[in-house]
Amino acid sequence: MMKKTLLAAAMLIVSVAGYAQKVKPALKLIKGNTYYLVSSAHSVIKQTINGQLNNIDMTIDGKMSFKVLNTDDSLYYMEVNYTKVGMKMTLPTGTVAFDSDNKDTTNIMARIMSGITNRPFTASITKSGRIRSVENAENMISAMIDGVKGVPDAQKDQLKSQLTESFGSAALKSNLQMSMAVLPEKAIAKNDKWTVNTIMEGAMKANITSVYQLMDITPQGYAIHGSATLVTDNTGGYKTISNMPMKYNMKGTMLSDFVVDKTTGWVSSSKIKQTIDGTVEIKDNPQIPGGLTFPMTVTSETTSSDH
Question: Among 25, 38, 91, 161, which has the highest number of CB atoms less than 10 A from its own CB?
Fold first, then answer.
């Protein structure tokens, strides 16, 4: 009887030890190899301006390639390319769509989308997926806009400003961070949690606090669930957007699920659901004398894969 009890206790200890075994998910990329991030983001923006409901339904699709140029003990140095970009917007005035594969040379936005593709910029990424730096994105935008013929300089400057909000170095860094910075900095066991703080840049600057949890370990990968809060940061005051001084006062939540490849540490697939709401302030300006404040709600769902 005593032997059986000791054997059962020993088996219990072994099973508990196995259950609590720690793992260290991390990027393990190979110099010279190329990895991909294919994403689709669908957003619904609801605004009520002067009592008039104004909804925008928008889908942005993209494919990015990441070639490992070099690596050291802490960083991967990547050449990054948009290989495909597309956007579809349903506005109160109708639907418009732009696609980098569109060969219609009379469509300025299609030409701009095409111009963004295959213009490399560089990024450095830590082994835990944190984006250390993004460089040369502004050069990509300038070269692309300057190459579009038949557009007045004033309009080119406005296009550069608008595109920089979405495709500039700061915006790209925060977008990539949200897509990739999900790995823990230290070894973890199943059900362990860790926190990642991210700053979202662009037209709206916000602080995002994400709590991730290792939900499962399979032979192929790690299943990670995230829950985040988002609060806009207005310490810099109003930002000029579409030639108007604007300020967002928003907060919201995000729920995410990631599958991370066990061999490479690269994100195999992800789904992120986001809901934010609040108000938008437009400061007094020649276009809107006296200024304007209106409510806005944004719901979005973004999915990604590695192929």
Answer: 25
Residue 34 in contact with residue 67, Cβ under 8 Å? yes
Give the closest residue to 201 by CA, choosing from 226, 168, 162, 223: 168
Q: Are strands 131-135 and 206-217 parallel, antiparallel or unpaired?
A: unpaired
Query: Whose CA is closest to 205, among 185, 188, 230, 242?
Result: 230
* Domain boundaries of the chain, sorted by first residue: 22-305
Cα 247 to its chain centre, rounded Å, is 21
Among candidates 231, 191, 187, which has minimal Cα distance to 212? 191
Tell me how far CA of residue 196 lies from CA of 13, 41, 213, in angstroms. 33, 22, 11
Judge whether residue 242 has pLDDT over 70. yes
- Taking only the tens place, the pLDDT of each residue in 5-59 is 555 555 554 444 445 689 999 999 999 999 999 999 999 999 998 888 889 999 9
**Residues 45, 296: contact at Cβ < 8 Å?**
yes
What three-state secondary structure class fits 173?
Answer: helix
Pick from 25, 137, 119: nearest CA to 81: 119
The reply to whether CATH 1.10.1220 applies to domain 22-305 is no
